[in-house]
Amino acid sequence: MKSTGGSDAEKRAAGESAAEAVEDGTVVGLGTGSTAAHAIRAVGRRVDSGLDVRGIPTSFQSRQLAKEAGIPLTTLDEAGTVDLAIDGADQFSGPHLVKGGGAAHAREKIVDAAADRLLVVADPSKAAERLDHSVPVEVLPDARTTVAAEVRGLGGSPTLRSAERKDGPVVTDNGNLVLDCEFGTIANPAELAADLAGLPGAVEHGLFVGMADEIHVGREDGADVKTF
Ligand SMILES: O=C(CO)[C@H](O)[C@H](O)COP(=O)(O)O
């Protein structure tokens, strides 16, 4: 699993802190990435101790991890609602997030938006005064050229994400491609989110505007919780 940013101890502290918030008898969205992985393993340990939950994974990776951790799984179709989602972020500023470093942001946004509460888990390197991380845009393969042109028209600089250990582009769990779009400092995340959402062939973008209810920021020896 690709790991970026802070230390593993910080990520683990964040994941374990959020996993403590999971209540008995609930449906939990399971995010993607190295920090969310710690939360999934921690929820699994609580399941071993008798916690009754059902998890909704947001990616192939989180499904595999949840199965290994012994978390019973369900789907949005079956469960209908999500009580709590735990997910990572590539950057956060207040409750606003940039996600999609693992190219899982389309399913993550569906599950995170459906949740009554979204708990973000992050190491301190993900904090920013204002969002300035590149924004991943998942695109239908046929739309990559036209969406890239539209992104340039919005003042962005798109780059097709290349795979590591495979020739060619990253292909998402949904069979699509990813354009990483640099906009510099994002003055108005809501406006950019609306512009990107309106592009034909853009499946989903990685701006999660105002979506975090809590951010658990891991330290070497614990976690700080910001509530919104
Ligand atoms: O959005 C994501 C995947 O699409 C991840 O949550 C994000 O990339 C953070 O990952 P990590 O915890 O490994 O830094």
What descriptive keywords fit this protein?
single chain, 228 residues, alpha/beta, Rossmann fold, Alpha-Beta Plaits, 2 domains, 6-stranded mixed sheet, 4-stranded antiparallel sheet, 7 helices, 28% strand, binds ribulose-5-phosphate
**Low-confidence parts, pLDDT < 50 over ≥5 residues?**
none
Give the tally of β-strands: 13
CATH class of the largest domain: Alpha Beta
| Series of H and E elements | HEHEHHEEEHEEHEEHEEEE
Strand content: 25-35%
Query: How much helical structure, as a percent, in the residues?
Result: 25-40%
Whole-number total of structural domains: 2
Structural class: alpha/beta
Bound molecules: ribulose-5-phosphate
- Strands of the widest sheet, in order across it, are 2-1-3-6-12-13
Mean pLDDT score:
97
Rounded to the nearest angstrom, the distance between the terminal CA atoms is 30 Å
Provide the gyration radius in Å: 17 Å
In the CATH hierarchy, what is the architecture of the largest domain at level 2?
3-Layer(aba) Sandwich
Please summarize the sheet with the most strands: 6 strands, mixed
CATH-derived topology of the largest domain: Rossmann fold
Which overall shape is indicated by the principal axes computed on the Cα atoms? globular
Number of helices: 7
Secondary structure layout plus pairing:
Blueprint: H1 8-19, E1 26-30, H2 34-48, E2 53-57, H3 60-69, H4 76-79, E3 82-87, E4 91-93, E5 96-98, H5 105-114, E6 115-122, E7 135-139, H6 144-153, E8 157-160, E9 177-182, H7 189-197, E10 202-205, E11 207-208, E12 214-219, E13 222-227
Parallel strand pairs: 1-2, 1-3, 3-6, 6-12
Antiparallel strand pairs: 4-5, 5-11, 7-9, 7-10, 8-9, 12-13
Helix pairs in contact: 1-2, 2-3
The chain binds ribulose-5-phosphate.
